[in-house]
């Protein structure tokens, strides 16, 4: 407490000199005054009648960020009662934030100091007796003043702000400071980004023992705000929770955290200790972690889930765990899940129940996670058990994960996370076998596609909420084949998810396809490709698509009147070259071709060949011979979609006579 008392004591000494005898005017000059860690340079203490003046060229408040130059104090001496002294006046400094007021009082048996400066207030009071206790009242003190002092104990502290309110008592005989305190708008950060806080509000108690090995115990009731503690992010709720801290200095001079505890009777209990080694970094031991997941998700995980794209995700069940986190990596961890259920309001993921454990250590055997009643984007997944091995270097499946999927099967031979890679990066391989496309279409509320989906992705990397695939997916549908390559996604479960791919298809049975799309009837095979497909929020924003009927189709190639109308509409009101075509229900054709390159919400259209008035979409054969020509080379994408919807609903315009 010497740091806070030294300047007032100097002024009190001046008061005593002023009142000690007949001397009424004097000046005391001191080159340097040191009290503990506090230093004052070029001091002048002056008395002129009842006026006391103190000037100092610079003041360093001993490790606190309170250094100041040009400090001045002026006060006027008064004697409220016989045997009492008081001096009230102003504080001046080069920094406007330091300007304020000061009042010193010395009464029979008591001394008091009241200072208002820097937007805060300090009041000290003590009895005039040996080793008397000092009462300290602090109001709205800037916390950044203490950053340099705290950096001695915590060198990684990079930023500190907020305000402190406190009512404390310091007992010199015991070297002990106790009382209540309140932290307002507390924010801090560490250089290694392992510990941070924002918007913290805390009311609690303090017990500081300044013995040979100092230690500090803090307890806060219902703190609020955001905390990052190593790998754990918490958004503290307005709840009847309790935060406990025990900070201690060891014999090597390092500050340790023997206890960090958090107790929320309704949702979460956590106990940990932190060992601080300057050469090795932080060593965090999590001795207890238990959570009721419904309350935990609502109270603590809302912001984290929203940032991951799962706003409003509902969890239930319970979790227990313990572990050790050293130098930014888990060295050991044990997690037990019981009756965990997951439900996404946006229906992207749902799991009725997950049970099992994950234990990390160097020698652990297989860990089991079992789930049932799972859905992904309304696609039902078969019940399954995953077998894991978790060491400090790797978390990986030890056996291929198999589950039933839409009449076929899904197998994941590899899924692993390796130490030292990007945060959240997983490597996987996936095999799909005979997935029924009709079941898939039903689950996703698509038109009733038929066929099957099979394929293998030998390399699949998940990172930052998306994935990149190495390999192709092979699909069998409409009696033909389709290949999907360069498959990738960003923010798959987040805001504005994207999907990219190249698609190539061969010998799709047009009769089946046109029937599903309700486009009219076309007989033949369809070949084509879609390069550079990019979807944002599952809507196309770019692609280069070209489709064409296969000249090698062995059967009769015919197209219905309605399908001709649809092609004409898509091409922007194309024309038919034979005026008697309305007399026929269907027509023979030689070839059909159409292309669309989508960019900036506009489709650049093309067909089989260029013509003087546009581009040929359909070239007829036999009698009657029919030709469909598209006239619009650029079509707004929303307009083209509207035309396609009109075609599928049977509202395509009737084709007029051709030129």
- Radius of gyration, in Å, reads 39 Å
What is the overall silhouette?
Answer: elongated
Structural class: mainly beta
Helicity range of the residues?
10-25%
Overall mean confidence score, pLDDT: 84
Oligomer status: single chain
Proportion of beta-strand residues: over 45%
For the secondary structure, the number of strands is 43
Give the low-pLDDT segments: 1-5, 652-659
The largest sheet, given as strand count, sense and whether it forms a barrel, is: 43 strands, antiparallel
- Per DSSP, the total helix count is 8
End-to-end C-alpha gap: 101 Å
Explain the overall architecture.
The radius of gyration is 39 Å and the shape is elongated. Helix content is 11%, strand content 59%. A hairpin with a 4-residue loop joins strand 11 (176-190) and strand 12. The chain is mostly beta strands and 659 residues long. The protein has a 43-stranded antiparallel beta sheet that branches.
Would you spell out the secondary-structure blueprint of this structure?
Layout: H1 2-20, E1 25-35, E2 38-48, E3 51-61, E4 68-78, E5 85-92, E6 100-107, E7 110-117, E8 120-127, E9 134-142, H2 147-153, E10 157-171, E11 176-190, E12 195-209, E13 215-229, E14 232-236, E15 242-249, E16 255-264, E17 268-277, E18 281-292, H3 293-299, H4 302-307, E19 314-326, E20 329-343, E21 349-360, E22 367-376, E23 379-381, E24 384-391, E25 394-397, E26 401-405, E27 408-418, E28 426-436, H5 437-443, E29 451-463, E30 466-470, E31 473-477, E32 480-490, E33 498-509, H6 510-516, E34 525-536, E35 539-549, E36 558-560, H7 561-570, E37 575-576, E38 586-599, E39 602-607, E40 609-610, E41 615-620, E42 627-630, E43 634-636, H8 637-648
Helix pairs in contact: 7-8
């Amino acid at each position: 407490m010497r740091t806070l008392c030294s300047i007032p004591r100097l002024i009190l000494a001046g008061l005593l000199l002023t009142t000690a005898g007949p001397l009424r005017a004097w000046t005391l000059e001191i080159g340097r005054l040191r009290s503990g860690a506090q230093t004052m340079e070029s001091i002048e203490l002056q008395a002129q009648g009842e006026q006391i003046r103190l000037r100092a060229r610079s003041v360093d408040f001993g490790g606190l960020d309170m250094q100041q130059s040009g400090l001045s104090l002026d006060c006027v001496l008064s004697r409220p009662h016989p045997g009492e002294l008081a001096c009230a006046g102003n504080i001046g400094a080069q920094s406007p934030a330091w300007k304020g007021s000061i009042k010193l009082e010395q009464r029979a048996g008591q001394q008091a100091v009241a200072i208002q400066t820097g937007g805060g207030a300090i009041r000290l009071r003590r009895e005039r007796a040996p080793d008397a206790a000092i009462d300290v009242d602090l109001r709205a003190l800037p916390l950044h003043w203490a950053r340099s002092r705290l950096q001695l104990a915590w060198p990684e502290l990079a930023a500190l702000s907020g305000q402190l309110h406190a009512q404390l008592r310091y007992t010199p005989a015991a070297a002990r400071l106790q009382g209540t305190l309140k932290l307002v708008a507390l924010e801090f950060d560490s250089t290694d980004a392992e510990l941070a806080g924002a918007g913290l509000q805390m009311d609690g108690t303090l017990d500081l023992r300044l013995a040979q090995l100092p230690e500090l115990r803090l307890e806060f009731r219902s703190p609020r705000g955001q905390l990052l503690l190593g790998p754990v992010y918490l958004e503290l709720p307005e709840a009847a929770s309790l935060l406990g801290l025990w900070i201690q200095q060891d014999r090597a001079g390092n500050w340790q955290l023997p206890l960090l505890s958090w107790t929320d009777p309704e949702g979460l209990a956590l106990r940990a200790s932190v060992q601080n080694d300057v050469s090795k970094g932080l060593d965090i031991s999590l001795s207890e972690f238990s959570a009721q997941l419904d309350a935990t998700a609502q109270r603590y995980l809302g912001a984290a889930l929203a940032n991951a794209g799962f706003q409003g995700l509902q969890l239930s069940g319970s979790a227990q765990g313990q572990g050790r986190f050293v130098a930014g990596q888990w060295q050991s961890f044990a997690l037990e899940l019981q009756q965990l259920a997951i439900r996404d309001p946006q229906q992207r993921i749902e799991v009725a129940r997950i049970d099992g454990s994950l234990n990390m250590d160097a020698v652990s055997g297989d860990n089991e996670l079992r789930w049932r009643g799972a859905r992904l984007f309304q696609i039902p997944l078969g019940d399954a058990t995953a077998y894991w091995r978790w060491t400090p270097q790797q978390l990986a499946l030890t056996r291929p994960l198999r589950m039933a999927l839409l009449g076929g099967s899904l197998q994941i031979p590899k899924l692993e996370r390796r130490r030292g890679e990007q945060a959240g990066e997983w490597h996987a391989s996936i095999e799909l076998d005979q997935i029924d496309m009709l079941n898939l279409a039903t689950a996703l509320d698509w038109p009733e596609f038929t066929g099957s989906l099979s394929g293998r992705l030998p390399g699949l990397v998940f990172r930052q909420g998306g994935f990149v695939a190495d390999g192709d997916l092979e699909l069998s549908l409409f009696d033909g084949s389709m290949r999907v390559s360069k498959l990738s996604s960003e923010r798959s479960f987040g805001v504005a998810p994207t999907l990219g791919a190249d698609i190539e298809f061969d010998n799709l049975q047009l009769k089946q396809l046109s029937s599903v799309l309700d486009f009219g009837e076309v007989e033949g095979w369809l070949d084509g490709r879609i390069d550079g497909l990019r979807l944002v929020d599952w809507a196309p924003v770019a692609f280069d698509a070209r489709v064409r009927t296969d000249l090698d189709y062995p059967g009769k190639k015919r197209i219905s009147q309605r399908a001709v109308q649809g092609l004409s509409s898509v091409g922007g009101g194309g024309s038919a070259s034979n005026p008697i075509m309305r007399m026929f229900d269907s027509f023979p054709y030689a070839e059909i071709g159409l292309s669309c390159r989508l960019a900036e919400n506009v489709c650049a259209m093309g067909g089989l060949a260029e013509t003087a008035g546009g581009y040929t979409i359909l070239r007829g054969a036999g009698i009657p011979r029919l030709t469909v020509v598209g006239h619009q080379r650029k079509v707004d994408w929303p307009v083209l979609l509207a035309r396609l919807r009109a075609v599928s609903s049977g509202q395509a315009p009737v084709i007029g006579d051709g030129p």
